[in-house]
């Protein structure tokens, strides 16, 4: 979203990011008022950290989402269209901060680095909460489809491929903004009550523990994310989870080792165990026949009960169940050889497919415990057989599924399938 003032074009996303940065700087300036030595070099440190954070945020985003830019390289610097990674901002900002401290002393004084990190994390959560409004403006960073009262509508042109038939989604950016405001309230309360002192590193560790665990949990609701290999775990999700766990463990150890805050230390340990257990908890198991009992590449008759007609439909499908067969799918074939290929997974989770070495277009029917939860029609074969995995479009299930039925393009419409229909595998 953009507008013009006196002939100049302004992007609302950029203005909100600028407002967030300005707020963080003003808060940081207030924090260092009672520290004359740090106040004297405030703008040097802030400038270096801000520049490093901005560069790092963009570079990391482009790196993890390279398939989006490989054929549109000119868009790599168009930050007004969105695309700033908080992980990259951390890395770049810390790098800029270390460089600024080194420039002053001609050596890295780690006590100074930790002091400035404590100052930064007092201000970052507020800035992040403001910055997430930019995601609302750009209609990005929304989650899986939802019908909850607070679900937000997303315009068709901003919906991720495979989700065009859904209109309302989880406001993921709002969840993060709320979590950051809670984090900010906790940290400022600690400071005002003088429970912890700046430079101790405890503010820094608390922030990274909170944000790492909280954000990694939210990533499970995210649609657009770079996945690890063939899993449904996002790369950033894994990185943030490790940051959160390690930071929380370091904070607990630091408090316990110094013999202070024993009650708080035990409380944080309990939080760590609860959050870690919750984030790594078991995914609901699928109902019906166990995958291990189904012969890979066997031919089965399945029954489709449809809402559009009272007459059930019997179709023949080839069932694949092993990781190797699932990964290969229909790649390289010139025809399916049956009515469709049914992929069966051992448990319900979000699945992501792409059309590697495909020779014909497909419909993808997403199924969870026998119920059709989504249909992605007319998925095109690759424009060139030479395209690598990083260059292929990803197609994600609208929610967790344990079956995916691939049929020739147009078949779902011909069969009169719709969300809510049932598939029975005898």
What layout of secondary structure does this protein have?
Elements: E1 2-5, E2 8-11, H1 12-31, H2 36-40, H3 42-64, H4 86-105, H5 110-138, E3 152-153, E4 168-169, H6 172-192, H7 202-218, H8 235-257, H9 262-279, E5 298-305, E6 313-320, H10 323-328, E7 340-349, E8 352-353, E9 362-368, E10 371-379, E11 395-396, E12 401-408, H11 411-414, E13 422-424
Parallel strand pairs: 6-7
Antiparallel strand pairs: 1-2, 3-4, 5-6, 5-13, 7-12, 8-11, 9-10, 9-12
Helix pairs in contact: 1-5, 3-4, 4-5, 5-6, 5-7, 6-7, 7-8, 8-9
Explain what the structure shows.
With 426 residues, this protein is of the alpha+beta class. Among the domains are: 1-138, no CATH class; 291-424, Protein of unknown function DUF192 (Jelly Rolls, Sandwich). 44% of the residues lie in helices and 16% in strands. It has helices spanning 12-31, 36-40, 42-64, 86-105, 110-138, 172-192, 202-218, 235-257, 262-279, 323-328, 411-414; strands at 2-5, 8-11, 152-153, 168-169, 298-305, 313-320, 340-349, 352-353, 362-368, 371-379, 395-396, 401-408, 422-424. It has a seven-stranded mixed sheet with strand order 10-9-12-7-6-5-13. It has a two-stranded antiparallel sheet with strand order 1-2. Helix 3 runs antiparallel to helix 4, helix 5 runs parallel beside helix 7 and helix 7 runs antiparallel to helix 8. The longest helix has 29 residues, at 110-138. The termini are far apart.
């Amino acid at each position: 979203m953009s507008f013009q003032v006196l002939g100049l074009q302004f992007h609302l996303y950029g203005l909100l990011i600028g407002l967030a940065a300005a707020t963080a700087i003003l808060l940081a300036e207030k924090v260092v008022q009672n520290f004359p030595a740090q106040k004297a070099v405030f703008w040097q440190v802030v400038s270096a950290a801000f520049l490093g954070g901005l560069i790092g945020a963009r570079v990391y985003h482009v790196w993890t989402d390279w398939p989006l830019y490989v054929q549109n390289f000119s868009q790599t610097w168009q930050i007004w269209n969105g695309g700033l990674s908080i992980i990259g901002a951390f890395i770049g900002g810390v790098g800029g901060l270390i460089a600024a401290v080194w420039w002053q002393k001609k050596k890295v004084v780690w006590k100074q680095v930790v002091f400035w990190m404590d100052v930064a994390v007092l201000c970052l959560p507020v800035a992040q909460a403001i910055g997430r409004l930019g995601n609302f403006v750009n209609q990005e960073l929304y989650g899986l489809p939802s019908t909850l009262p607070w679900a937000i509508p997303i315009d068709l042109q901003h919906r991720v491929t495979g989700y065009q038939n859904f209109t309302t989604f989880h406001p993921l950016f709002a969840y993060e903004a709320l979590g950051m405001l809670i984090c900010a309230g906790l940290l400022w309360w600690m400071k005002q009550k003088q429970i912890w002192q700046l430079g101790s590193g405890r503010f820094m560790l608390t922030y990274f523990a909170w944000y790492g665990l909280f954000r990694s949990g939210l990533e499970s609701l995210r649609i657009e994310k770079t996945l690890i290999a063939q899993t449904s775990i996002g790369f950033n999700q894994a990185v943030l989870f490790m940051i959160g766990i390690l930071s929380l463990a370091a904070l607990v150890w630091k408090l316990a080792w110094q013999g202070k805050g024993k009650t708080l230390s035990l409380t944080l340990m309990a939080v760590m165990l609860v959050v870690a257990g919750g984030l790594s908890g078991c995914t609901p198991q699928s109902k019906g026949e166990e995958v291990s009992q189904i012969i890979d590449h066997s031919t089965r008759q399945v029954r489709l009960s449809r809402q559009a007609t009272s007459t059930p439909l019997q179709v023949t499908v080839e069932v694949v169940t092993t990781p190797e067969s699932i990964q290969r799918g229909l790649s390289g074939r010139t025809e399916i050889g049956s009515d469709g290929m049914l992929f069966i997974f051992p448990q319900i989770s979000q699945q992501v497919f792409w059309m590697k070495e495909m020779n014909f277009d497909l419909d993808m029917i997403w199924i969870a415990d026998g119920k059709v939860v989504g249909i992605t029609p007319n998925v095109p074969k690759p424009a060139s057989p030479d395209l690598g995995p990083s260059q292929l479009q990803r197609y994600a299930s609208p929610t967790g599924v344990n079956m995916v039925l691939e049929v020739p393009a147009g078949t779902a419409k011909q069969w009169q399938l719709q969300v809510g229909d049932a598939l029975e595998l005898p």
